[in-house]
Design brief:
With 114 residues, the chain is mostly beta strands. 0% of the residues lie in helices and 61% in strands. 17% of the residues are buried.
């Protein structure tokens, strides 16, 4: 499953929460746009008892001497059934506060037949 939405929030709008379903021990993917030219970096925050980060990659869409932007691809799996909160903050190296935030509610269920 892939969830992605263009960056359309102002720096102060942190109220948007996205819900998604997942199955325990099966990977799910979240794509977020990142402009490395500006120094942006998405940083995930989650309880490792409920979710596990499997991979974190950057797919460069545009790159030249002045621009490097693309999609940050996070792959997670639910470790336990239940509702888990996954928060991504867009950080800039020189700022103490987040530029943007994306909040996901992950509803994880056991695989069918277990």
């Amino acid at each position: 499953m892939t969830i992605s939405k263009p960056d359309s929030h102002s720096a102060r709008d942190f109220s948007d929460c996205r819900s998604m379903s997942a199955t325990v021990d099966r990977p799910f993917v979240i794509h977020l746009w990142e402009d490395r030219t500006r120094g942006e970096q998405w940083v995930p925050s989650y309880d490792s008892k409920g979710l596990a980060l499997l991979s974190d990659e950057f797919l460069c869409i545009a790159s030249n001497n002045a621009v490097e932007n693309g999609q940050r691809i996070f792959e997670f799996k639910a470790v336990t059934p239940g509702t888990h909160r996954l928060v991504f903050e867009k950080r800039m190296g020189w700022k103490f506060t987040a530029e943007d935030r994306r909040v996901f509610q992950i509803d994880a269920a056991n695989p069918p037949g277990s």
